[in-house]
Amino acid sequence: MPGPVKRRLTVHQKLLLAAAVFLMVGGTLCLAQSPAIDLGEASLEELMNVQVYSASKHIQNASDAPSSVTVISADEIQKHGFRTLADILGAVRGFYLGYDRSYRFAGVRGFGPPGDFNTRVLLLVDGHRINDNIYDQAMLGTEFPVDVDVIDRVEVVRGPSSSLYGSNAFFGVINVITKRARDIDGWEFSFEPASFETYKGRATYGGTTKGVEMLFSGTFYNSAGQNLYFPEFDTPLTNDGIARKLDYDRYHDTLFKLAYRGFTLQGVETWRNKGLPTASYGTEFNDFRARNADQHQFLDLSYSSTLHNSWQMTARTYYDRYAYDGIWPYSAAQTNIDYARGQRWGGELQFRHRLLRKHDLTVGSELRYNLQQDQKNYDTNSPALYVDDHRTTRMGASFVQDEFSISSQLKLNIGIRFDLYQRYGASTNPRAGLIYQPWGKTTFKLLYGTAFRSPNVYEAYYGTGSGGNSGYSLNPDLRPETMRSIEAVCEQQLGPHVRLSGAVFWNYLRDLISLQQDESSELLIFRNVDKVQAAGSELELSTQFANGLAGNISYSYTAAKDQRSRQLPVNSPQHLGKLNVTVPLLSRRLFASGDAQYESSRKTLQGNEAGAHALFNVTLLGRAINKRLDLSTSIYNLLDRTYFTPGSGDLTQDSLEQDGRSFRIKLTWHWGARH
User: Splitting the chain (675 residues) into consecutive groups of 10 residues, what average pLDDT does each group show?
Assistant: First the structure.
């Protein structure tokens, strides 16, 4: 049996590691001769009590939000060497990750069923819905359409938020806020060589001309990937189980923002082509044709203004397009094509007003029209059409939220949203939060809410009801999934530098949609069959100092139970631990950061276990070398641990080995007035 081929350092990796050491030593010498940065007189209270938008659809202190909220800033993203949105979420309390060599998946508070496509988390970019209108998938890895270097902050709002956002806001909302032109103020260029023959480049411009703020950014990425070993294919006829040059990953994305007075026009375009080395779903092993290709574009126009009597209005209209092509070779003579095309148009209108000095009232409405929801599945060599479904659907919604200041110490946040779907009818979801601040640095929150997720067209209409060979059966009678949640939160600031927060929660999920085998046709079919109950607790300690010293440590425990089997659900770790530390060095221009992540074992689809594991990542960042250059070196999975996560839905792949040790060097040049 061949050895674990991914563990040996290639010549490329050795050169990369040597270059990292050389560059950081050289950078250190330059930094030692540089004057210290004046960090100003920032208030430590302000550093610790960040403001958020996504919890209530307006800016407020995190302590006033009717949710447990985590904010990850651009500074943290840079210092910890996060490469993707998935990396960012992996460092967040209560989140855990999986990777099937095509897409990244996130579980939240003990719930992440394989094949879920991240449908139970709502993903936004500057408030714009990113979950597509075919699979409802939230893209988190290299498939996410925005480069992490143009992210200003990521707001993670835990708990059900359907009272504001509707479907998919089940376990939380992730709102990625991008940078403004003034945050760049000139040109930025970055280049990143990394392990596995990986290269990434980015060019970004931000500036203001005649009152118009303009931001443009473009990124390219190319990775050869790894040669991966799969023991189930270990025969001489299948290359001894080694998939060569099939783990490649290529993408490009562009973003532009134009802002003038209250108007903001934003456009995003991304294309990604990912090789499939896993030979999943019975496809040919080690076949170079196997790949997934995704495209996503959107155009979003928003307007904000203060009207008569201090009414604040926000309006938005948008257009989205999504395309997916899956190439699945089953033999040299047979190739299967999986195809999806989606388009949607929508609009949102929101008003906010302060009433009687005690009520902060927000009302809004939303209309979404799915112009195209097409799915096809067919063979090319011996032509056969298995799936050919075309849909257009509509939905509308309205919501109201009132933040009532009962006293200076006690607030009541109540809201309700009514959604009407053309195919699935109505859903009404309330939320209530009682927020008590008996002392200036102590906050208690008691939260209740419900959420729903409407079935997507893939779950309901991917398949054939009679005589076909798609392997799936139609089920247009699916019902929306629902959830009820109760949570208690305590947040305590211990002096000017330290904050302690804790939470206990209970979630009850009904009518969960999962893939089953139909007894009569023996085809696979999506059905509302599962009920899951989960209770847990979380504890987090955070520190923040003006000189850049920062740290965060958290622990999460979740006891989830499938109500049918009375057992732990698949892909549900009970224990999660996170540690993130940043230490300033050398006149505050050199920073050393490390993060550690621990996960207990997870149950797989076949009833086995993907074992517990601990990962360690380190990053060394040199900032403003010669006033223009940032230089960082990161090592991921520092101890080269071998670990597995459950497969994503294919029963033949019970668990998949994840990446071993890898390296990245990143250079960023700044050209502009600020630099």
Answer: 42 45 40 35 51 93 93 95 97 95 94 89 97 96 96 96 95 96 94 96 96 96 93 88 94 97 96 94 91 97 90 96 96 91 97 91 97 95 89 96 95 96 93 93 96 95 64 88 96 91 96 85 85 95 89 96 87 96 88 96 91 96 85 96 86 85 96 65
Q: Distance between CA atoms of 308 and 320, rounded to whole angstroms? A: 33
Amino acid (one-letter) located at 440: G
Q: Which residue carries 């960012």 as its tokens?
A: 88
Task: Record the tokens describing residue 158, joined without a space.
Answer: 């835990």
What torsion, rounded to 10 degrees, do the Cα atoms 334, 336, 337, 338 define? 180
Separation between Cα atoms, residue 284 and residue 334, nearest integer Å: 10
- Residues 373, 378, 383, 386, Cα dihedral to 10°: -90
DSSP states of 113-179 as a string? -TT-TTTTSEEEETTEE-S-SSS-----STTSSS-GGGEEEEEEEES--HHHH-TT-SSEEEEEEEP
**Hey, what are 560's tokens?**
């989830």
Q: Return the SS3 of 620.
A: strand
The pLDDT value recorded for residue 530 is 85
Measured over the CA atoms of residue 391, residue 172, residue 595 and residue 575, the dihedral's sign is negative
What is the per-residue pLDDT for 651?
63
Q: Write down the pLDDT at residue 14.
A: 46
633, 590 contact by CB (below 8 A):
no
Report which residue type is found at 588.
R
CB within 8 Å of 646: residues ≥ 6 apart: 98, 114, 570, 571, 602, 603, 604, 605, 610, 654, 655, 656
Whole-Å CA distances, 313 to 162, 176, 304, 307, 376: 21, 22, 6, 7, 42
Closest CA to 142 of 185, 99, 204: 99
pTM attached to this predicted model: 0.92
Cα(393)–Cα(625) distance, rounded to whole angstroms? 54
DSSP annotation of 472 reads B
CB neighbour burial string for 367-399, b if at least 16 within 10 angstroms, e if fewer? ebebebbbbbbbbeeeeeebbebebebebebeb
- The C-alpha atoms of residue 124 and residue 300 are separated, in whole angstroms, by 12
Q: In this structure, what DSSP letter does residue 377 have? A: E
Nearest in space to 138 (alpha carbons), one of 128, 125, 123: 123
> Which of these, 598, 630, 596, 618, lies nearest to 663 by C-alpha position?
618
Q: How many C-beta atoms lie closer than 10 Å to residue 223's C-beta?
A: 20
Residues 6+ apart with CB under 8 A from 43: none
**Cβ count within 10 A of residue 21:** 10
At 471, list the tokens: 């392997």
Radius of gyration of the chain (CA): 25
Distance, CA of 256 to CA of 268 (rounded, Å): 7
SS (H, E, C) 548-578: CCEEEEEEEEEEEEECCCCECCCCCCCEEEE
Pairing of strands 122-125, 172-178: parallel
What tokens does 362 get?
């927000």
Q: What is the pLDDT of residue 357?
A: 85
Query: 548 Cβ partners below 8 Å, 6+ apart?
Result: 39, 582, 584, 588, 591
